[in-house]
Amino acid sequence: MNRRDRDENEIVTIRDAISRFRRGKTKFNLAGFVLEFTFPRKSKGTDYVERLKITDEHMSEITVSVFSTDAQFLPRLRSYKDFIVLYNVTIEKVNEEFCVVFNKKFSSFGLYDGNSLYQEFPGFNLLRDHRDVITRMRRLSDSFQSSAGSKDFLISIKNLGTRDYFDLVCQVLRMQEVSDDKLMFYVWDGSDYPPLNVQERLEDERSNPLPLQVEAFPLHISTVCHFPRVGSVLRIEASKSEGDFSILNNYIGRWVKIRNMSSCTRLGLGLWYGRLVYNSRVRLLSDNDDIVVEHKRAISERGLGMEGRLPLWGNSLDSLTVLDCVDAPIATLMDLLSQNQVGVTFRCGVRVMAICPAKVEDFHQSGEYKIRLTLEDPTTRIHAFLCGHDGDRFFRRCVSDDDIALYINKLLGVLENCNIDGDIDYQRNPPWIECCIELKDDNKFYLCKTLLV
After folding, report:
1. How confident is the model over 305-322, as pLDDT tens digits?
2. Taking a C-beta distance cutoff of 8 angstroms, is the pair 445, 339 a contact?
3. What secondary structure does DSSP assign to 96-148, as a single string?
4. Across the strands, what pairs with 349?
5. pLDDT per residue as tens digits for the range 234-246
6. Based on C-alpha coordinates, what's the Rg of the chain?
7. Which residues neighbour 261 within 8 Å (Cβ) at sequence distance 6 or greater?
8. How is residue 241 annotated by DSSP?
9. Is 111 a residue whose pLDDT tops 90?
10. Distance between CA atoms of residues 306 and 364, nearest Å
11. 8 Å CB contact between 384 and 437
């Protein structure tokens, strides 16, 4: 092979490729670690496209647009340490920024981990002269640490609502298909999302109860019991029509940075969720990444013992209640769902989001209390019942239905000038209270050993 052929086939650095592009060269061979990627989607034409950001051994970065007639041929990264070899790609300058274009007709790529080639575009054939590059990249991958990148738009779950579009470092817990065109992802970073107001008519609670979760149907308890028991699990919606978001399912249990997602609320229902869009990106992270370590440290400092199970937003629990079970263990509502311990009483920090029946005069059925409460903490929502003698204890200090209505309004966060028995919509901001909850033989939760004061 003569010198000109060697130059044509050489794998060059990103900086060198840009320099040669300025001198008129049109095609290049590159190698670099994949920092992040978009979700595959339909291009404006008939192809599928995925955009990568890669960095070479000199830490130069550039965006690569990969086009293919079939989405299955687009890169599927396994690890933050993996690297890609790109053959016969071109460079373009768009909005004063250089980017690489992978042409399906004459370009090819190979994806490597530290041991082997695990994905190749049809037609890829590693040249003999490039084996030393592969050997060098594999040595580098042993110590390569992909950072989480810019913090300009980075928030945590506890900061939801501060930006319309944001980046989130989180652990991916699960993917669920919730409709023919929609996926739901479940992610967690150990923090509690901010409490939201509720704007639902209490009169509708019997026929149209306040939902317990964002998705239409709850996850099976066998799935829920594997979720973390402290901190909020954020639901993230993704429309199949906007891209192949299912590839995020490949990273269950891994820490990732999701870029350019939006936060939303179910209007009036007090439920947070996120949304992936067509240009959202994913960056795979090491467990030793600085931001991942920060999250783990915050989780550790919070403590997963008793006090750490109280809501971060409820540090000063409202003094609306006193307990007859101060020695009971503190638990989150997710603890209750997961442990399934019949007859054991737990102390919980919760908000009362809804009550059924709505009218105080209907609380007494057949001469005793029978009330269903919708309780919320940062981990989940549940229904808990207040019945019989526990109802008598709960309202012991109330001498009339008017007294009960006053306390119920406070529990529900109803403003003083609103009427619980009215038929208007109003926003409520329920306070955090402490109560005792017990699972009974009928597999229902009951409020117990708690007194309004």
Report:
1. 666 788 888 666 778 999
2. no
3. TEEEEEE-TTT-EEEEE-SS-EEEE-TT----GGGHHHHHHHHHHHHH-----
4. 434
5. 999 999 999 999 9
6. 28
7. 165, 166, 167, 168, 236, 274, 275, 276, 277, 280
8. G
9. yes
10. 35
11. yes
Interatomic CA distance for residues 366 and 184, integer angstroms: 43
Q: Tell me, what's the pLDDT at 316? A: 65
Strand partners, 63: 53, 99
Q: What angle do CA 100, 43, 20 make, to 5 degrees?
A: 10
Give the helix/strand (H/E) hosting 292: helix 290-302
Tokens of 414: 């109803």
The rounded distance, in Å, linking the Cα atoms of 294 and 207 is 45
Alpha helices by DSSP H, 165-238: 221-224
Looking at residues 116-136, what average pLDDT do you find? Answer: 95
Average pLDDT over residues 213-233: 92
Burial degree of 79 (CB within 10 A; 0-12, 13-18, 19+): middle
* pLDDT tens-digit series, residues 19-47: 999 998 889 999 999 999 999 999 988 89
Sequence-separated (6 or more) residues with CB below 8 Å from residue 420: 202, 358, 359, 360, 405, 408, 409, 412, 414
